[in-house]
Amino acid sequence: MNPQVPVSRISVAPMMDWTDRHFRYFMRLITRRALLYTEMVTTGAILRGKDNHRYLSFSKEEHPIALQLGGDSPTALAECAKIGEEYGYDEINLNVGCPSDRVQSGSFGACLMKEPDLVAEMVAFCKSQVKIPVTVKHRIGVNGKESYEDLYHFVSKIKEAGVDQIIVHARIAILEGLSPKENRTIPPLRYEDVYSLKKDFPDLSIVINGGIKSHTEIGDHLTKVDGVMIGRVAYDNPFLFSEVDSLYYHEEGSARTREEVLSELIPYVHFVIEKEGKVHYILRHILGLYHGERGAREYRKFLTDRIHLNDASESILKDYLALR
C-alpha cells in the first residue's frame, strides 16, 4: 500500500438530494480534511441547462471537493470534466454505481458496469481534458455480471485507461426489482472482493464504501485498502467526522464542539437567507448533529418546530444555543 496518505483517505459519499452545497458547508465546519462530493450532476444538466452555476457553484470553504458526473457519452463527460476543472473542483468522479430507474433510463450509473470498454473510454476522454484526478465510483457488480472475475475485468479496463482512483461500493446492484434504498441494504456486502482488488492492483488507489458506521470499522478497512467512503451515516450522524482530522490526518486541535459548529454556521445561514429566503434549505441538513447524545430528540424538535415558519431565520440557532 502506498505510504503516502491520499486526499480521499476519508470521504463523504455523493448522495442525491442530500450532499448539496449547504450540507457540504456544514460538514466542512466539522472536518477540514475529509473529501466531500457533490450530488451527481448529469452531463445534460451542464451542457443543455440554462443555469450551470446553480449546479456547479460551491463555497471556497468546501475544498477539497469532487464533482460527480453522470452520463454515458465520453465526449460529453470530457467536456463537463473540463468545465468542472475550470470551476475549481479538486476531482472529477464518474458515477458507475447508481442503480435508480431514472439513471438507468439514461443508460448510465450501475448499468455501465456491463460496458467496461465504454467506461474505459469515458475515463480516457476525461483524462485527456483535465489535469485533476479522474475517479470512478462503482459497485462490485450488477446482476448477471457479479463474479469477482467480472469485477477484475472491469477494473483492469479502467486502470489501463488511466483512472486515478476507484471507489467501490461492496455490494452488487440489482438493476430490476429493487429500489435504490433496497440496493443499499439487501444485496450482501462483499468486502473481501474489494480487498482482493487491492491485492491484485496494488498500485491503484482503492476506496471502500458500503455499510461502514464506526471508527473501529474505518480503522479495520484502512489496513486493507487506501480509503473509506461513508454514506448515510455521515448524514444521520455527521459529528462522527469530528475525529476524522485527528485520527486519519494527524491534525490535532482542529476539532470543534457541536455548539461551536452551530455558532459558526450562523453567518452562513444569514447569508443564504438573504439570497434564497428559506432557512430550511440549510437546517434540514443539521438535524443529526446531536445523534446519540442526551437531548438529541429535543434538539431535533426545537429545529423542526421552527424551520418552516414564515419568519424563520438564523435566530433559531441563536435561541437554541442560549438554552445550552
UniProtKB/TrEMBL annotation:
Its EC number is 1.3.1.91. Keywords: Flavoprotein, FMN, NADP, Oxidoreductase, RNA-binding, tRNA processing, tRNA-binding. It comes from the Bacteria. SUPFAM superfamilies: FMN-linked oxidoreductases. InterPro entries: Aldolase_TIM, DUS-like_FMN-bd, DUS_fam, DusA, tRNA_hU_synthase_CS. It catalyses: 5,6-dihydrouridine(20a) in tRNA + NAD(+) = uridine(20a) in tRNA + NADH + H(+); 5,6-dihydrouridine(20) in tRNA + NADP(+) = uridine(20) in tRNA + NADPH + H(+); 5,6-dihydrouridine(20) in tRNA + NAD(+) = uridine(20) in tRNA + NADH + H(+); 5,6-dihydrouridine(20a) in tRNA + NADP(+) = uridine(20a) in tRNA + NADPH + H(+). FMN binds at residues 14-16, 68, 137, 169, 209-211, 231-232. Its cofactor is FMN. Coiled coil: none annotated. This is tRNA-dihydrouridine(20/20a) synthase.
